[in-house]
Write a structure and sequence with these properties.
With 161 residues, the chain is an alpha/beta fold. It is built from 5 helices and 9 strands; from the N terminus they run E-H-E-H-E-E-E-H-E-H-E-H-E-E.
Length: 161
């Protein structure tokens, strides 16, 4: 995986950790990594357009990175609501993962993480993207990761999914 031509917005309020992530991204050949420490800075950078990928920390001081994800996905003036989002967080509890999924996050990674884990998540985002779903209550990647053969309800996916 090469990130040479991918423009990334890294939203992280811990400058030391942001530099570590930037160094890892450089090892993946990323050359265009913009950073923001607050939701306001992140939205301003994103609204200018041109980012191909967002890497967002869940906790940004008193702010919640999921608010940015929801805005990217649902704000009528969002320049790119389909932009892939990787969420970073210190909590891997099920309710945290579910909240990220329901906000429209593509992939989720718990801190501390390995370089390999970051690589794998970025590889999934760039090479195996899930289709997007847009409803009145949700905008983001299809939350279903695998078919449940036992499910027989009205929203059952076809066998080709």
């Amino acid at each position: 995986m090469r990130l040479r031509d991918v423009r990334i917005l890294l939203v992280e309020d811990n400058a030391h950790f942001a530099e570590i992530v930037r160094a890892i991204l450089r090892s993946f050949e990323a050359r265009q990594v913009d950073t923001a420490e607050t939701l306001g800075q992140a939205w301003q950078a994103f609204a200018r357009g041109g980012h191909d990928l967002l890497i967002v920390d869940r906790h940004l001081g008193r702010d919640d990175g999921l608010d940015l994800v929801r805005r990217v996905r649902r704000d009528p003036v969002s320049p790119a609501p389909f932009t892939p989002v990787l969420m970073l967080t210190g909590s891997g509890e099920m309710h945290t993962v579910a909240a990220a999924r329901d906000a429209g996050v593509n992939e989720f990674l718990v801190k501390p993480f390995s370089v390999t884990a970051l690589y794998e998540r970025l590889n999934v985002i760039t090479h195996r993207p899930r289709p997007f779903v847009s409803t009145e209550s949700y905008m983001g990647p299809d939350r279903r990761r695998r078919a449940d053969p036992a499910y027989a309800g009205p929203e059952r996916r076809s066998s080709t999914a």
